């Protein structure tokens, strides 16, 4: 405050008009006005309780949260109840151990098997999807495509692919190859391609062109130039995005079971339909632990990749 | 010098021309682990791989049926479902933005001491780790099964990513204005208002829009557990073999998602890059009529 005042005094001596010391604030940009107006209008339309809105009332939300379905709450997370906790531990024991097996952990139950299948689906989809993504990512970038037509076609196909949510792919593959883990693997493969190609080709656009020019000057064909001068530059980022896609796949794999595409979601929707909320709670819990553990491992590897 | 002459001049010279490739232990470990994982999954997963061979034939038949049954009759219902997905995603994005916004500044290294910052970051990590479907299931006993449940679940799960990446944006701002505000006696709030927000806000808002694009896809996914929207519409149509709904639903979801992506990415570019030079010049020409606005002392 005092600093500002002294500047004013100093300026006052040299410049008679005090108004000129502080420039007039420019009027807000039309973009800002229209943007804010559009934001408010869109929010009101979508939040209002009418044909075009979902009826979201932030003020009523605390009341709705307090007014719960007791049967479901008791099943899902009645953590303060000692009986519930004992039953929970018992459920974990029956689902994850086998008295006849010498191993401390058994994954043959509906829940354990679903968990393993979820990991298998995510692993296969990530490896196959990422392997297909590398050439596609090169073609999806203007620098990497041999000609404009290839670039446009690959880009358009990938945009369509990314616009289809993974469960919809799963539902479609269930029609094509029947229920089970296979449609889940195929669906998440498409999803992996969408994510990895998009992110990696953004990296291709920003790389150093020197090595490619050098390779061309030495007489390399387009494919050879890409392989020797472009791919080595994007490899660390590509590996990192592939691991990121694995994390996303593991999380996405939980929903697949709801459309018949395998994994832990199948057990989830089974127990949900049986109204066995405690089993649902157990599934959600072990699945969450799995996701967090895998994510921590993946993050530490990604950090190592730089 | 040809390759042959190099080789001929002895092993030592050859070794000097091309240094021996170092043994990449990390790369080998990764390759072996990946191959092992791939082999284990391929053999042990309960997938009937043989069906892959039938898939192309079936796909042709499926697409044929879609074309044959193509009809615009369910267009109204499909558009309504798509709009509901967009509405859910929008509310979820706003909710995530509002809930994450205060945490952003507590998670940024250039604004907050590490004693406060580390716990906040951990909280953000927890939100990031929880899959949307888990949150949605946990909310169903309280909110029932509907669009609001989906919006709240997605909003909460957006907190993690929005908070973490916005904090990274705040950390990348120029330190100068922060020091200037501090030097003229500004406190915490003044620093936020005059140094942080003007620099970080455009990028943060752009990131909110990007999250909206992602949330549209997520809301379609949550549709299958029954929160409404286009995801449930298509999944039900597939389950009941209502082909005209499958085809039209797919068309609507692809076109609408691509349209929203295109609009959103233009808005994002405008937010980050500012007005185009032509628009800026037009504005300046219009405003110079009112006398000099520039002041070289300012």
Give me the secondary-structure category of chain A.
mainly alpha
Per CATH, the class of the domain at 75-273 in chain B reads: Mainly Alpha
The N- to C-terminal Cα distance of chain B equals 66 Å
Percent of residues of chain A in helical segments?
over 70%
The CATH superfamily name of the largest domain in chain A is MetI-like
Rg of chain A, rounded, reads: 28 Å
What would the average pLDDT of chain B be, to the nearest integer? 87
Q: What is the CATH architecture descriptor of the domain at 75-273 in chain B?
A: Orthogonal Bundle
Backbone CA Rg of chain B:
28 Å
Helix count, DSSP H or I runs of 4 or more residues of chain B? 13
How many β-strand runs of chain B?
A: 0
- Beta content of chain B: under 5%
CATH arch. level architecture of the largest domain in chain A: Orthogonal Bundle
CATH topology value of the domain at 75-273 in chain B: MetI-like fold
Largest sheet of chain B: none
Mean pLDDT of chain A: 87
How many domain units of chain A? 2
Task: Indicate the topology.
The complex is a heterodimer of chains A (306) and B (298).
Chain A: H1 2-14, H2 30-47, H3 61-66, H4 70-77, H5 82-96, H6 110-140, H7 148-163, H8 166-177, H9 181-204, H10 210-217, H11 222-256, H12 264-273, H13 277-305
Helix pairs in contact in A: 4-13, 6-9, 6-11, 6-12, 7-9, 8-9, 9-11, 10-11, 11-12, 11-13, 12-13
Chain B: H1 3-8, H2 11-17, H3 25-44, H4 51-68, H5 75-106, H6 114-129, H7 132-143, H8 147-171, H9 175-183, H10 188-222, H11 230-239, H12 243-273, H13 277-287
Helix pairs in contact in B: 5-8, 5-10, 5-12, 6-8, 7-8, 8-10, 9-10, 10-12, 11-12
